[in-house]
Amino acid sequence: MHQLVIGKHGYLQVNTIVAIRILAVVRKHILLEIENTSGLFLLALGSGVLSLGIVFALFQWIEWKDDTPNLPSPGTPMQPR
């Protein structure tokens, strides 16, 4: 948790863990026997994949936002160097 707070290294670790969990749940979907599975269990697995996907997308957005340069707004005068 400390690495997550102090730098980008933590984002990469969390992204990897979330991606692996998504793959594990999707693998569970593939291996399920649908006729022996309740609808509530399928709903729970689906909501788990959805929530993990939202967390993954959020971390991707945070990384993308941190990587974009801070450009001046259009119409503002350029600062001399």
TrEMBL record:
<keyword id="KW-0812">Transmembrane</keyword>
<keyword id="KW-1133">Transmembrane helix</keyword>
<dbReference type="Pfam" id="PF06146">
    <property type="entry name" value="PsiE"/>
</dbReference>
<keyword id="KW-0472">Membrane</keyword>
<keyword id="KW-1003">Cell membrane</keyword>
<dbReference type="InterPro" id="IPR020948">
    <property type="entry name" value="P_starv_induced_PsiE-like"/>
</dbReference>
<feature type="transmembrane region" description="Helical">
    <location>
        <begin position="38"/>
        <end position="62"/>
    </location>
</feature>
<protein>
    <submittedName>
        <fullName>Phosphate-starvation-inducible PsiE family protein</fullName>
    </submittedName>
</protein>
<feature type="transmembrane region" description="Helical">
    <location>
        <begin position="6"/>
        <end position="26"/>
    </location>
</feature>
<dbReference type="GO" id="GO:0005886">
    <property type="term" value="C:plasma membrane"/>
</dbReference>
